[in-house]
Amino acid sequence: MKITKISTQKDSSRINLYVDGEFYLGLPSEAIIEFKLKKDMELDHETAQRLQCYDELQRTKSSAYKYLSYRQRTVREMIDYLTRKGFEQQSISNVIELLKESGFLNDESFAKAYVDDKTRLNDLGAYRLKAELRKKGIGEELIKETLSDLEPDIEHLVELIQRKYSSSLTGDKNSTMRKAAGFLQRKGYGYEVIKKVLEKLGSGEE
Question: What does the DSSP 8-state code read for residue 12?
Answer without folding.
Answer: T
